[in-house]
Amino acid sequence: MKQTLVKLCIMLFAVPVVLIGILSIIAPFPSSEPMPLRPPKPEPRDGYQLFYSFAQNGDVLKKSFYYVSTKRQVIYRYDADRYLELQGENCSGHIWFHDDKNNIHTLIQKRFYTAYDLPKYHYYNPGKQYIAIPTQNLTDFAMSVDGGRHFITARVSPMAAVPGDEVDFFIGVDDSPIEDIFFDPIKGDIPLTISGNTGYFVLKNGEVIFGASYRYNKIDYGLGLKEYPIYYPSAAFSDERIRDGSNFGAYDRLLDNQEYKNRVESMKHIQPEPYQGWDKIRCEVGAEK
Q1: Half-sphere exposure of residue 223, counting CA atoms within 13 Å on the CB side?
Q2: At 7, is the secondary structure helix, strand, or coil?
Q3: Which of 87, 271, 248, 247 is nearest to 171 (CA)?
Q4: What is the per-residue pLDDT across 52-103, written as a single tens digit (0 to 9) for each?
Q5: Alpha-carbon dihedral of residues 68, 71, 73, 79, nearest 10 degrees?
Q6: Ranges of each domain in the chain
Q7: Are 190 and 250 contacting, i.e. CB atoms less than 8 angstroms apart?
Q8: How many CB atoms sit inside 10 A of residue 246's CB?
Q9: I need a labelling partner for 49 at 20 to 30 A (CA). Which of 4, 25, 64, 77 fits?
Q10: Distance between CA atoms of residues 247 and 236, nearest Å
Q11: How far is CA 156 from CA 36, 62, 287, in A?
């Protein structure tokens, strides 16, 4: 009788415990910790516009999005018809380029501007086809070569990206192209065209950062002709931070190009007046409507 009771106890208590242990290994019980939240889904919000982020290669990141207020304020005027609007609040958001005369209204979506990004130095852009919107830290900025219909993100060479407080003014002009020859170790002499749509950062010490879209006319390497918007220091730099990095690539040929030298030198003394537009970007927190 006693043995029967012991066997019964084992069957009623020990076996279930063992089975529970085995099942907990095969199919563990859910954790008592709260389940992680699911990522939010993009939904309309009153007074805000939904934007998706971009990857470095330009692809849209559908899982990365943010909202920008639909409020706007004019932050710069080129003339009576052309101006910039900042969409957002607290001087942060996206910039619109407007040309009312030609019915051009372009949202520069791939560049989000914060109050820190807006340049504090003097800014002039008398060019009609070349529109450049520089940043305070000189790392990159938006640039158009077709009168503001399309904008791309241009970059500044690390050797030329001086702090914004060293800049006296930026000026963007329409000028004639510069032609030269670039020597490629594989292809030999190759025609090089520097666009006449050009921007210049003139520093307080009188030195110049020259920038343009440039094209290797006969290089494709299977990729086709490409334009490379980039800014480099001019041959006149004396600052060793960037002087030593300026003599490389296609621009090495330009250092001996007299037309290039004359153009850079003239920018040091250029008088942007009479200029119909503003002389600085202006943004006031709370002025957006």
Answers
A1: 6
A2: helix
A3: 271
A4: 887 766 677 777 888 889 999 999 999 999 999 999 999 999 999 999 999 9
A5: 90
A6: 48-268
A7: no
A8: 22
A9: 77
A10: 11
A11: 42, 29, 31
Please say whether the beta carbons of 186 and 220 come within 8 A: no
Which range has highest mean pLDDT (46-55, 82-91, 182-191)? 82-91
Spatial CB neighbours of 47, under 8 Å, sequence gap ≥ 6: 69, 70, 71
3-state secondary structure 12-38: HHHHHHHHHHHHHHHCCCCCCCCCCCC
Residue 150 has which token pair? 């399309």
φ/ψ of 26, rounded to 5, equals -70, -45
Per-residue pLDDT, 283:
95
Tokens of 3: 């043995």
Q: Which residues pair with residue 191 across a beta bridge?
A: 181
Q: How far is the CA of 102 from the CAs of 11, 38, 72, 97, in angstroms?
A: 90, 46, 21, 12
Burial of residue 270, with CB atoms counted within 10 A of its CB: 0-12 exposed, 13-18 middle, 19 or more buried: middle
What pLDDT score does 160 carry?
A: 66
Q: What Cα–Cα distance (Å) separates residue 4 from each residue in 9, 19, 263?
A: 9, 22, 108
